[in-house]
Design a protein that fits this description.
Layout (H helix, E strand, L loop, with lengths): L7 H7 L2 H8 L8 H17 L6 E6 L16 E8 L2 H11 L9 H10 L6 H11 E6 L16 E7 L2 H4 L3 H12 L2 E13 L3 E4 L2 E4 L5 H10 L2 E9 L12 E9 L4
Helix pairs in contact: 3-5, 5-6, 8-9
């Protein structure tokens, strides 16, 4: 598997949501890098979508994985949210939480922290119900397609969100650049792209399976966003990394960018 790209078929066959959640979103063991990363992401998203931040009617989250934390802030400022992922299992995991089915993953710690950032940690149950009401659909997606949601065609969105995903979905820098152009096609002129990218990461483990990433530098990400038709309004570079990538000298790049008007 060394040196090979894990494409969609590998994700469909071998990516297990519960192994992924156990590796990156289990916080029973106390303050670990994964928990700090989640808090960092939630803080960035709160500043982006909180009072005075981005708002609108529609938001599309591309490559949601089996997680919902990334839209906890946005559900207060957008009326219609679409979640999406390539694999059937991840979409099933999302639906399980949205429908409050038995065995759904417990996101309470993340929801409580998001509410704490908003100034009222006691409203976490209300926050969960708000999110469930605002998420209108869970779709299949592939960021490598000209229409990442094909065959579904949605009205152009006010915001596209994608966290810790494009570097895993793309096999090369050129593919990453093309994927950003594909995401731009989902947005209204003046709409916003919000993305977090793990830098310099070559692969990560989920259970006993290794999945590849395209290692990106901050400057490459920044230039790709600009070339996809965006003006960058905010760029934050953080040295934070997950346990699995500590030895790889990785970091995070958080970007908020506005789609330029067409010609």
């Amino acid at each position: 598997m060394e040196g090979s790209f894990t494409g969609g078929d590998e994700y469909q066959k071998h990516f297990l949501p519960r192994d992924y959640l156990a590796a990156f979103y289990s916080f029973d063991s106390g303050p670990v890098p994964e928990a700090e990363m989640l808090k960092f992401n939630l803080e960035c998203l709160h500043k982006t979508f909180g009072p005075g931040g981005l708002q609108g009617d529609t938001l599309i989250d591309i490559d949601s994985g089996p997680t919902i934390y990334q839209v906890l802030a946005a559900c207060e400022s957008f009326k219609d949210i679409t979640l999406s992922d390539f694999t059937d299992r991840n979409r099933e995991e999302l639906e399980k939480w949205l429908k409050k089915e038995p065995g759904a993953y417990d996101w309470t710690p993340a929801v409580r922290f998001a509410c704490e950032l908003e100034g009222n940690s006691d409203r976490w149950r209300e926050k969960e119900e708000k999110l469930r009401a605002v998420v209108k659909r869970v779709l299949k997606c592939d960021a490598n397609l000209g229409n990442p949601l094909a065959p579904v065609v949605l009205p152009l969105a006010d915001c596209v969100l994608t966290l810790l995903a494009m570097e895993c979905a793309c096999c090369s820098l050129d593919a990453y650049r093309a994927a950003l152009r594909n995401l731009a096609s989902l947005l209204k002129p003046g709409g916003h792209l919000v993305t977090i990218v793990t830098l310099r990461l070559k692969s990560y483990m989920v259970g006993k399976r290794q999945f590849s990433c395209v290692p990106l530098e901050k400057e490459e990400v920044e230039q790709a966003v600009l070339d996809a038709g965006f003006d960058i309004e905010q760029l934050l570079h953080s040295p934070r990394s997950y346990t699995v990538s500590l030895a790889a000298n990785t970091g995070l790049c958080f970007i908020v960018a506005r789609k330029r008007p067409g010609p």
